[in-house]
Amino acid sequence: MTPLLELALGQQYPAAALYVVATPIGNIADITLRALHVLGLVDRIAAEDTRNTGQLLARYGITKPLLALHQHNERVVAARVIEHLQAGERMAYVSDAGTPGISDPGAKLVDAVRAAGLAVIPLPGASALATALSAAGDWVATFSFIGFLPPKAKQRAAALQALATQPSALVFYEAPHRIVETVAALADGLGGTRRLLIARELTKLHEALHVCTLADGPAWLAADANRQRGEFVLVVEGAPAQEVAGESEHDVLLGILLKELSVSAAAKVAAAITGGSRNALYARALALQQD
Ligand code: SAM
User: Fold this and answer.
1) Tens-digit pLDDT profile for residues 219-251
2) 40 and 14 share a domain?
């Protein structure tokens, strides 16, 4: 054992417990001493993808019996995990990358293990969510984690409409094949004026963090095909105060437009003129018309 790993040695590692272990999100060195010690100590490891995890463990010189537990078999395999724990074993759960249970399997397993009266012990570590937020800046004081938006345009627009007046920043995950349409949908649904952090390939060779407005996001991505490659976290600034309060600095404009247009047409025109959120302007136009 390396001298550094000895730091984790003299601690408590109860038996008959499930250890939920975070693994790197790209950089092989981003794993904690305690995680390495526990992965070496447990009797077996349940993993989202046993092949991936087998390769990861090999890099750390660890070999363990592996059990596949992914989103399609989580409940069924949880019962087997519980049998192992009831026999007094220590087990770990790891997802493909980052922290289990965050847009990854693991949550149903945790529920089942706890319901069986057994201990669940989390081992903190890498997560794309916390990594992006740590480098976002002072405009992200509070946030809501949304994860992946629905892939279909209609459901995605509805989800964004429900989020349009949230005062906290919004954090999304996105894959490369949808990044362009998702950033365009964010600008459309939340307005062009809010700040956007595009965090790409965090902790990896081609890591890039770029802050711009939502309106400028699509053009920035389009300017270089490489900017659309890899894995993404998107952080969007929260709704401006007047949208949260239900008032709009654009009430006068909306009032004029509503004399000639339907609520939805007035919101669309006002959004095009002001760069504001079409959803928020729609909600405000509706309220003004009802008044
Ligand atoms: N459980 C993981 C965590 O704790 O972050 C997230 C798993 S989720 C299935 C995968 C998504 O996380 C990717 O599509 C991407 O949006 C985000 N992600 C994971 N690794 C990333 C990285 N290195 N850079 C940017 N985003 C990443």
Assistant:
1) 999 999 999 999 999 999 999 877 766 677 788
2) yes
